[in-house]
Specification:
This protein is α/β, with parallel strands linked by helices. 26% of the residues lie in helices and 25% in strands. The chain has an eight-stranded parallel sheet. It binds alpha-L-arabinofuranose. Alpha-L-arabinofuranose binds at residues 44, 88-90, 191-192, 314, 362-363, 368.
């Protein structure tokens, strides 16, 4: 009797630990492209993102091309960064671009009042940023100054960069060593104008947006894609007002939402957290789904044809800074938890690709949810980097409709969907499926029907680790990294995938 009970308990435990879910992927359908620009990045003059992150200067012993680190460029090219947002952030609305052109020795030294009160010597300016984008082979996304700038200043910046003819600004560019204009499409008209970008009301900013946007001209065949400063998380009134008053004048509306596990006073540690805090982080990350759905619903009313993109151009995890580091530099470690958070958000963006056509994680190097850390001549790739590496195949692929209801991950009387999925078909007809198992305790078996496909082969990669808090350090740079995934089987048209607990799996099906 005792043995039978023990056997039953063991079987029950096994069943719970191997929850089964059914997924249908409509592999022969799909109308929407997952824009590669969803995989964009954001880099601000903040802490060691620009200085020490990208920029070491031409005289540095660290290998560089015209002052820009070669190791960083190599690593970012590997994940095919499609666009880079710069110079901020809050910094953008205090940045006067003319301070960052001309001979470096003559550029003014000033205080970075927002971020650490350190000296900004302007050695990295417009030419250096656009050189960086050329080295990365990505599109620049420049954010102009509305908060403390002028219409004239922003208008002249566009002219300086993109005008080919004879004009004071184009001539100045040539005098500074750049003959041909650059192509710049993505143009942000201010940043967080409800906060650090001027503490404006939605009504006031909408009027300002219209005014600034008029004078951001299209020169030659350069066509600006103007992105208005959008709402803070769930500020639906902001979206409503902007769309009503200025929807016709913009191509994109930004959205900022950070995942803060605890609260803004004590955000929580990047590396020391228990399961309850992990659960809260993921619960708050799922909020992105609701934010996008609700902002999109408002946008649909004014723009049913979805001409205007919703652009989450600042998103990611925000924790307390690492002990002993400058609080104004926002340096935080990056664990497996961050990778799961990034993968979940990217799946959400993919699944809303009809409206979300661009996004930028904050921030690329040494700041907030980074993909790279540098320390002197050393560089390492964080767990979040590997998510971008895994998800490369979704860039510009066709989003596939899926039917899936995830099982639940429960803790302390609360619950969230345990598994997130998105799927796409690339130009060669290969199907890619990204699956995230947020449940840190249980495997999940996903029985997948690839409807409309005659699949023969499945391969994959996975990212996981023993503990959620695991992370990479300069002593152990490969503690958390991708490995080949062996947990998928194809038999009689059904793809059976066993997702390890707390894992991200990217499958390629041919
Ligand atoms: O990414 C850090 C800061 O967060 C940005 O400068 C600002 O836009 C946001 O509040």
């Amino acid at each position: 009797m005792k043995r039978t009970i023990l056997l039953l308990v063991a079987l029950l435990a096994l069943a719970t630990a191997r929850a089964q879910e059914r997924l249908v992927i409509h592999a022969d359908q799909g109308e929407v492209t997952i824009s590669k620009h969803i995989y964009g990045h954001f880099s601000e003059h903040l802490g060691h993102c620009i200085y020490g992150g990208y920029w070491v200067g031409e005289d540095s012993p660290i290998p560089n091309t015209r002052g820009i680190r070669d190791d960083v460029v190599r690593a970012l090219r590997e994940i095919r960064v499609p666009n880079l947002r710069w110079p901020g952030g809050c910094f953008a609305d205090e940045y006067h671009w003319m301070d960052g052109i001309g001979p470096r020795a003559g550029r003014p030294r000033m205080i970075n009042t927002h971020w650490g009160g350190v000296v900004e010597d302007n050695s990295f300016g417009t030419h250096e940023f656009l050189d960086l984008c050329e080295q990365l082979d990505c599109e620049p996304y420049i954010c102009g100054n509305v908060g403390s700038g002028t219409v004239e200043e922003m208008s002249k910046w566009v002219e300086y960069i993109t005008f080919d003819g004879e004009s004071p600004m184009a001539d100045l560019r040539r005098a500074n060593g750049r003959e041909a204009p650059w192509k710049v499409r993505f143009w942000g008209v201010g940043n967080e104008n409800w906060g650090c970008g001027g503490e404006m009301t939605a009504e006031f900013y909408a009027d300002q947006y219209r005014r600034y946007a008029v004078y951001c001209r299209n020169y030659g065949d350069n066509r600006l894609y103007k992105i208005a400063g959008g709402p803070n998380s769930g500020d639906y009134n902001w979206t409503e007002t902007l769309m009503r008053k200025a929807g016709g004048q913009m191509q994109g509306l930004s959205l900022h939402h950070y995942t803060v596990p605890k609260n803004w006073g004590d955000k929580g540690s990047a590396t020391r957290f228990d399961e309850a805090e992990y659960f809260a982080t993921m619960e708050k990350s799922w909020v992105m789904e609701e934010l996008i759905a609700r902002h999109s619903t408002i946008m649909d009313r004014y723009d049913p044809r979805k001409r205007v993109a919703l652009v989450p151009d600042e998103w990611g995890a925000w924790y307390n800074v690492e002990p002993g580091t400058n609080p104004g530099f926002l340096f935080q470690q990056n664990t497996l938890r961050d990778a799961l958070l990034a993968a979940l958000n990217l799946n959400i963006f993919n699944n809303h690709a009809d409206r979300v056509r661009m996004a930028n994680i904050a921030q690329t190097i040494n700041v907030l949810q980074s993909v790279i850390f540098t320390e002197g001549e050393k560089m390492l790739l964080t767990p979040t980097y590997w998510v971008y590496w895994l998800y490369r195949a979704h860039q510009d692929a066709t989003l596939l409709p899926v039917a899936f209801t995830s099982g639940r991950y429960r803790l302390g009387g609360r619950e969230i969907a345990a598994v997130s999925v998105s799927a796409s078909r690339d130009a060669d007809g290969k199907v890619h499926v990204s699956l995230v198992n947020l449940d840190p305790n249980n495997e999940r078996v996903i029985e997948t029907e690839l409807r409309g496909a005659n699949s023969k082969k499945v391969t994959g990669h996975a990212l996981t680790s023993a503990r959620l808090t695991d992370h990479n350090t300069f002593d152990h740079p490969d503690a958390v990294t991708v490995k080949e995934f062996k947990g998928a089987r194809l038999a009689k048209g059904t793809l059976s995938v066993t997702l390890p607990p707390k894992s991200i799996v990217m499958l390629e099906v041919e």
